[in-house]
Amino acid sequence: MLEVRGLDLYYGDAQALDGVSLQVDAGQIVAIIGANGAGKSSLIRAISGIEKPRAGNILFQSRDITGWESCDICDAGIGQVAEGRQIFPSLSVEENLDMGALLARARRKARQTKEEVYAMFPQLAERRSQLAGTLSGGEQQMLAIGRCLMGQPQLIMFDEPSLGLAPTVVQEVFHAIRALNGRGITILLVEQNVAVSLKLAARAYVLENGRIVSEGRGEDLLSDDRVRRAYLGL
Fold first, then answer.
1. What per-residue confidence (pLDDT) applies to 234?
2. Number of Cβ within a 10 Å radius of residue 47
3. Rounded to whole angstroms, what are the CA distances from 43 to 15, 16, 100, 190?
């Protein structure tokens, strides 16, 4: 579904990604793990069109989307749940969800999709008229996921979805990710909780200093001594 080939990304003279290549097959959960500053968020931003790569290609369903505008990438079927949630705090829950359905691909089924979001996250249904900025951190993350779903993506990129959340809420977020994948949505997951990421993922890539240094099945990397020492403290 998604293929990244030899991607280079710079911020000025500083190189953030160096020849990154990876593949995400339809229906998979694929994890990207690495330390802070390894280039994980830069990779997500490049795929979503927020940053423009200097070299390399990004293909989605065999179409080269390199250099496309973010809105066109969203309308092609790639959704993103950004780090820090980035909901609209001065809008209500319902208005935030409506913003997610502005894409041409999503408008016709917007009402049905919204009811599906409310069924998945009943807390949002109870607070549909409440200002999003007054929600708890966990509820805001649910809203960010719900807003993404309103665009009817085929692939969702999660950037640090558990960041800053209480452990019980983190479990709810990962349960939601599993449920979405169970419904056929492909997932690209960037997550600080390496152990959970590798348990969820069919495949995973290890990113260090902007380069892919290891890849394999999630369960294999979870038992890899180098990965365990570097990211699990074992």
1. 53
2. 25
3. 12, 9, 22, 10
Reading the block at residue 85, the tokens are: 């949630």
The tens digit of pLDDT for each residue in 72-88 reads 999 999 999 988 778 99
Note the pLDDT tens digit of each residue in 13-71: 999 999 999 999 999 999 999 988 899 999 999 999 999 999 999 999 999 999 999 99
**DSSP-derived 3-state class of residue 194:** helix
Spatial separation of the C-alpha atoms in residues 132 and 58, rounded to whole Å: 34
Superfamily the domain 1-77+154-234 falls into: P-loop containing nucleotide triphosphate hydrolases (3.40.50.300)
Q: What is 112-161 written as a DSSP string?
A: HHHHHHHHH-HHHHHTTTSBGGGS-HHHHHHHHHHHHHHT--SEEEEEST
Taking the domains of the chain in order of start, what are their residue ranges? Answer: 1-77+154-234, 85-152
